[in-house]
Design brief:
five-stranded parallel β-barrel, globular, two-stranded parallel sheet, mainly beta, 14 strands
């Protein structure tokens, strides 16, 4: 087994479902250019996490999904190039870091967690977090959310369960 290293996958308006059962999923380079471009991106790594060797750069124009909870609860680190509309990003007992050059929103505001992890770190450079559709988050250890590095936009998060807040900074 080994880590699946992504150089470039560009499906345009097509959907991508990628499962790595023998290792993690990483980027060849963390350079701010999308390693994966598709309408709906669904990633699952059962061993080793996602973006742990090198942060994975993803453009998902419709929906972003990432799962390590079905495996070893590996950490997830994704840089969204453009807006991140989250279906489900679930690291189970692992940590989630989602950094977007655009906004971070939910596909649906339905009271079910869109992002699940121990420590959840969310950074949006433009148009805020949960402004298009409220982001539902389960963070069992700590929740951090930041738009201060970008345009200081608003943050709207529903905590599913108790949330220990680390840093929430809208500028």
């Amino acid at each position: 087994g080994g880590t699946l290293v992504i150089g470039l996958i560009d499906l345009g308006s097509g959907d991508l479902e990628l499962l790595s059962s023998a290792g993690g999923i990483d980027s060849a380079t963390d350079d701010g250019t999308a390693d994966i471009t598709a309408a709906t991106v669904s990633l699952e790594a059962t061993v080793g996490g996602i973006g742990q060797g090198s942060v994975l750069d993803v453009t998902a124009t419709t929906e972003l999904n990432a799962d390590t909870d079905a495996g070893d609860d590996g950490n997830i680190a994704i840089d969204s190039i453009g807006d991140a509309t989250v279906g489900l990003v679930d690291a189970g007992a692992g940590d989630v870091t989602l950094d977007s050059t655009g906004d971070i929103d939910s596909t649906t505001d339905d009271g079910t967690a869109d992002v699940e992890g121990a420590t959840v770190n969310l950074v949006a450079d433009a148009n805020g977090i949960g402004q298009g559709s409220v982001l539902d988050v389960t963070a069992t250890t700590q929740l951090n959310a930041d738009t201060d590095a970008g345009d200081d936009a608003n943050i709207d998060i529903d905590s599913i369960g108790d949330a220990t807040v680390g840093l929430v900074d809208a500028g």
